[in-house]
Structure formats: C-alpha cells, structure tokens
Design a protein that fits this description.
The complex is a heterodimer.
Chain A lengths: L3 E10 L2 E11 L4 E5 L6 H9 L6 E6 L2 E2 L10 E4 L11 H11 L4 H15 L14 H13 L5 E5 L7 H17 L3 E6 L2 H7 L2 E6 L2 E6 L1 H6 L4 H6 L6 E8 L2 E4 L4 E3 L13 E6 L4 E3 L10 E13 L3 E8 L2 E8 L9 E7 L4 E4 L10
Parallel strand pairs in A: 3-8, 3-9, 6-7, 7-8
Antiparallel strand pairs in A: 1-2, 1-4, 4-5, 9-10, 11-12, 11-14, 12-13, 14-20, 15-19, 16-17, 16-19, 17-18
Chain B lengths: L1 H36 L3 H4 L14 H6 L11 H32 L5 H11 L8 H11 L5 H26 L2 H9 L4 H30 L2 H6 L8 H5 L10 H26 L11
Helix pairs in contact in B: 1-12, 4-7, 4-9, 5-7, 7-9, 8-9, 9-12
Classes of the chains: A alpha+beta, B mainly alpha.
C-alpha cells in the first residue's frame, strides 16, 4: 500500500511524443481511474507505472522511491490485463500461486494465500481447472486473484472489463468495487468507459492526446467540467454543446433564439464573447417533467424530432439553432415526432465555455 | 431437394476417389521400396512384375550390415552414425538460432527488421545446389571437404531461415501480455521466456525441429559434393554405393532406403503430440 507520484512523465516513441509531461499524485489506498478515448495515452501511462514501458522523461515513484529504473518485478505491483493473460498451460491454482512460487515462498504460504484469494473471489471450485475451461467472468476473477495473492503495494487494471458482455461488466464492476473495499490498496484503473470511471473512482483523471484534461472526484468532473472535451466525454447522453454569442445579459444562439446568461456566470463573460453553451440532457426537460425545479430557470419552445423511451425516462431529440440537442423527460408520457413542447432549462446547472479555447469560463 | 442431396453425395464420392488416386500415386513408389527391401534381387526385375514378395526375408538388411554369407562392402553403420551426428547437431544449432531469431523478430523492434526478415526468406529462393560449387571451393580451401563440420555448417545455414520463420509465427501467436504478466508477477525477462513463452511455443519449436532434422537427414545433392569417405558420407550419399559400373543392387538399395526412413518416422511419431497446436487457447479472451 503506497502512494504513487508521477512527476512530469513523458513518453516518446522515436521522435513522436505520446504522453506530454503528466503530473499526478495518487494517495495511499486511493482508487484512481484514468479515462479517455483510445489513443489518449492512458494505457501507456499505466504501463510506465508498471515498468512495462520505459519512461522517456520525468519520474514515477511508488512509495518513497523513484522506480524509473526498476524492472516490473521489483516494483511490487500487480496488474490485471485486458485479455487477462492467464497462463494457459497452468491450472487456476498454479496461475494464482505463480508469483509466490517465483518469489520462492514455501508451499504452506502459497497454499494459504491461494486459498485466501480463492475465497475472496469465489474461485474455490475452479482451482484445478485450466483457463480454457473457464467462462469470461471466471477468467477475469482468476486474473484479479493472481493480482491479490501477492499483497502488492498497488493494483493496476488495464481495461479489465472491456472483453466482457454488458451484463457481466456491470456485475464485475461491482465486484471490483467490493474487492477494493475488502483489500484496501492503491488502485490505478484504466478504462475508456466513463460509466466505469464514474462508478468506481475516488478520483477521475480525464486524458486526451497525452495530456491530463482534468483531475477530480466523479462529482467534480461531472458538475464542473473544465472544458468542452471533459463536458462531452463524461456523462451519458453527452452534454449538449451549442455555439452562441453573449449579447448584454443574454446568450444568443445562431438562429437568434436567446436565453439569459446564467446568474452565477454573469460576471465571467463579456459582451460580444463567442461562447459554447453547455447543457446536460437532464437539465433540458419538458415543463412538469424535470427532476426538480431549478432556482434559475428559463424556458424555450422546441420541436421534438425523435423520442427514445428508456423506462423511467425518455430521451427527447430536439434542435436548438440547427444543432441537435438532447433532453430528458422524467415520468412517461406519449410524445410523437413533430410535437412542440415547452422545455425548462436549469440555468443554474448550465455551462459556458469560451468558443476559442474551449475552456469553461468558470475555470479561467 | 432430392437432386441436391444426390449431387452432394456424388461430389463426396468423387472427392474420395480423387483423393485415393492421388494417395496411390504418392504412396506406391514408397511401398515398392519397402516391399523390395524384403525380396531377393532376382525378383526385382522379374517379368511379369512380382508385386508381393514370394519369399520375404531380412537377407538384404543382414547383407548391408555385414552379416550372412554374401555381404555388401558398404559401411552402413558408419554412414548411419555420420547421418545421425550431422542431422542432430545441425538441427540443435538451427533450433537455437531459430528460437533466438524467431523470438527477436516476434517481440522486439529494431532497425532493418523487415529488410532482414525479407532477406532471410529470399535466401530460401536460391536452390541449395546452385551454391554447391562456391561452397565446394571455399570448403576445399579451409579444409572442410569430407568433414562432418562442413556439412553441419551448410545444413545450419539451410535450415535457419525456415526455423526462424516458423518459430517467429508461433511466438507471435502468444500474446505479449503473457510475458508481461509473468514479469509483473516477479519473473526476469529470461524466466518469463522459459516458464511461460517457451512452453507455449513448444509445439512450434518441435515442428521446426522435425523439418530441420528431415532436411538434413534426407539431403543428397550438397552432401554428395562435400563428402568423400566414411568420415563424413551420409546415408543418402551411401545409397549410391549400390550402383556399380554395370549393375545396380536394387534390393540392397531399398533395404538401406528403409533404414533411412525409419528414424525419421520414429522421430515424427515421438514429436507429433507436440505438433497439436491450440495450447494457447483459453489464456486470453476466447
């Protein structure tokens, strides 16, 4: 159990730089999720922590010492791979005990630790099987078991759930969360799935193109995205981002429709500024069908283009200034395409981003 | 419906017949050699041909090994020993190089990798016999004519490109995460190779070994150029000892051919269980 510190970490392949100076402090026992689209450098960063990729510049520390020059085996970490990487020629028991055997632990310790891990993960019945005889979820559990038997300083997970079907993914997500509560250890978890990030993380690190865009608790990242990328990446369906211009105390869209500038942001914008107006679908709701009345709300009359009933809520596709915008309707009610509805807009939860930099006007 | 079924059946029968004819074409010469090994020389050239030996005996084998009344003055045991030493040594060396090379090509990024690999493959396009004259001239200068070492070097060179290519393919099939997982689990790179990747690539290495062994064991053209005496002559070259100026001892030659075939068969049977691939299934998402 240790803290992990990344100090200006850079990764280059030849002349191409793929990770551009990352700084990150991961606290003792913290569950940190690196999330971002593919190619954003999250897996490379994780592999640099593991020692599977050389660090081109900067330092990585696990616990008190810099580990840049230590091979993976000396970093006292465990890793769960996307494809599980179980050893196919060994039984589940041998897979679990492999690391301990390499560390020359005595038989009694190995058996005890393997049984302990099997117990935690419900693998007792499967110990004599080979990986080929296991289902996807069971393999995933063995991979996690292999990680916990060694009582490492930190767990590294590299997209561990992306090979599972949707139902199993949700189930294993809960198991990982429970596992972390049982086996208190520092966890660095890489995923491209923002739902996984939101549900698992103590802190989320949103990455793009080898840079960290934002670090924060799931709540912070969701409620206060620092730029349009984070705003659109976190949350499902994604935040509506609509180009507009500030005119006096109004946000004017390209088609001339306007809304008042959110009160809390009034002093952060200037007249004539080009902005992106950001609004989550949850905050664009037909009158009487929202979650809760907003203190600072506005109204717009919009045509519904399409509706998708999800059960307790319905996604409504509409258009603002020629751009598609999604709203949500809580409480079922028949809506047919072409209907015109009046929408409540929760202005106290609306966002404004600078159109040129993409940064939140609040984060400046 | 019925028509379709009938057509399918006819197709299946035609395939069987065609396969049978092809197999006969392939197998009959081999069968003839084996049968001839057990019959007296007189029966070989009989007209009409005698297919099944009338009095099968082991005389031909006894004869070439120097037992019984009429002996052939051919040092088969020496040839056998030469063949075995040359084939085994060259196979072992080719496998060692092939394993290192195959692993390097499969796992590492380095300069000129593609060019080097292509070059290795292109070397296979040159027929071995085309090189026999230059090899002969060089070997005669450095005293490797009629030496086992001379043939071993030639066979290693002949086999290495193929073993590298084959083993590279097998290592490529093993996800690199296996080795990485082992390294995170506490292995050095070398331990990860021996404990994880090597056992998984065993079938590939075994097949590469068989091919290398058979190439060296059966090679005739280069060996006949580079060998002179019992010091280095191999079994296929020894076969020519049965041809005299006016006669050919077909029965003796066949008996020796059978002796050449047997070790190759035994080896193939021994290693065949390793040839069954699919060992890596299950370790990763399936």
């Amino acid at each position: 159990m240790a803290e992990i510190t990344l100090n200006n970490v850079i990764k280059r392949y030849g002349k191409i730089e793929v990770v551009h100076g990352i700084n990150l402090d991961i606290a003792h026992n913290e569950f940190v999720v690196l999330v971002g689209p593919s190619g954003c450098g999250k897996s490379t960063t994780l592999r640099m922590i593991a020692g599977l990729e050389d660090i081109s510049d900067g330092t990585v520390s696990i616990g008190p010492g810099v580990v840049n020059d230590l091979p993976p085996r000396k970093r006292n970490i465990s890793m769960v791979f996307q494809n599980y990487a179980l050893y196919p020629h060994m039984s589940v028991r041998e897979n679990l005990g492999f690391g301990l055997k390499i560390a020359k632990q005595d038989e009694a310790t190995i058996t005890a630790r393997v049984n302990e891990a099997a117990d935690i993960l419900g693998l007792d019945e499967l110990l004599e099987r080979t990986p080929a005889e296991l289902s996807g979820g069971q393999r995933q559990r063995v991979a996690m078991g292999r990680a916990i038997v060694r009582h490492p300083e930190a767990f590294l997970f590299d997209e561990p759930l992306s090979n599972l079907d949707a139902k199993l993914r949700v189930q294993m997500r809960t198991e990982i969360k429970k596992l972390h509560q049982k086996v208190k250890t520092t966890v660095v978890y890489v995923t491209h799935d923002q739902v996984e990030a939101m549900t698992l993380a103590d802190r989320i690190v949103v990455m793009k193109d080898g840079h960290i865009e934002q670090v924060g608790t799931p709540m912070e990242v969701f409620n206060h995205p620092v730029n349009t990328f984070v705003a659109s990446f976190i949350g499902s369906p994604p935040m509506n981002l609509l180009p507009a211009r500030i005119r006096g105390a109004e946000v004017v869209f390209t088609d001339g429709k306007s809304l008042p500038v959110p009160t809390r942001l009034a002093d952060r914008v200037r007249d004539g500024q080009e902005v992106i107006f950001g609004l989550r679908p949850d905050d664009l709701t037909p009158v009487g069908h929202g979650i809760a009345e907003s203190g600072d709300s506005a109204r717009l009359t919009l045509d519904v283009v399409l509706s998708e009933l999800l059960g307790t809520e319905t996604i409504l596709y509409t258009s603002i200034a020629g751009q598609e915008a999604q709203g949500k309707m809580f409480g079922p009610r028949d809506v047919t395409p072409g209907d015109t509805l009046e929408f409540d807009i929760a202005m106290d939860r609306a966002h404004l981003f600078d159109a040129t930099t993409g940064k939140s006007v609040r984060a400046d | 419906m019925k028509n379709g079924k009938l057509r399918k059946q006819i197709g299946a029968i035609a395939t069987w017949v065609l396969t049978f004819i092809l197999m006969v074409i392939i197998c009959v010469p081999g069968l003839w050699v084996v049968l001839t090994a057990f019959r007296p020389n007189g029966e070989v050239l009989a007209k009409p041909p005698v297919w099944i030996p009338e009095n099968p005996s082991l005389n031909n084998f006894a004869k070439i090994f120097g037992f019984g009344a009429d002996q052939v003055a051919i040092p088969v045991p020496a040839y056998f020993a030469n063949s075995l030493i040359i084939a085994l040594t060259s196979t072992a060396i080719a496998l060692l190089i092939g394993m290192s090379g195959g692993y390097a090509f499969a796992r590492y990024r380095f300069r000129f990798k593609n060019g080097l690999f292509l070059g290795l493959m292109l070397s296979r396009t040159v027929p071995g016999i085309a090189l026999s004259l230059p090899i002969f001239m060089i070997w005669s200068r450095i005293g490797l004519i009629d030496a086992k070492l001379g043939l071993i070097i030639v066979y290693v060179a002949l086999n290495v490109p193929f073993t590298i290519w084959l083993i590279d393919g097998f290592f490529r099939q093993i996800p690199k995460e296996m080795s990485e997982a082992a390294q995170v689990d506490g292995c050095t790179r070398w331990q990860a190779f021996w404990k994880i990747e090597f056992p998984l690539a065993k079938s590939g290495i075994a097949s590469a070994g068989i091919f290398a062994f058979l190439t060296s064991w059966n090679e005739y053209a280069l060996a006949s150029n580079l060998t002179r005496s019992t010091d280095s002559k191999t079994l296929p070259v020894g076969l020519m000892d049965f041809t005299a100026q006016f006669t050919i001892d077909w029965a003796g030659m066949s008996a020796m051919a059978v002796i050449i075939i047997i070790p190759a068969l035994i080896l193939t049977f021994l290693v065949q269980k390793h040839l069954i691939a699919g060992l890596t299934f299950g370790g990763v998402k399936g």
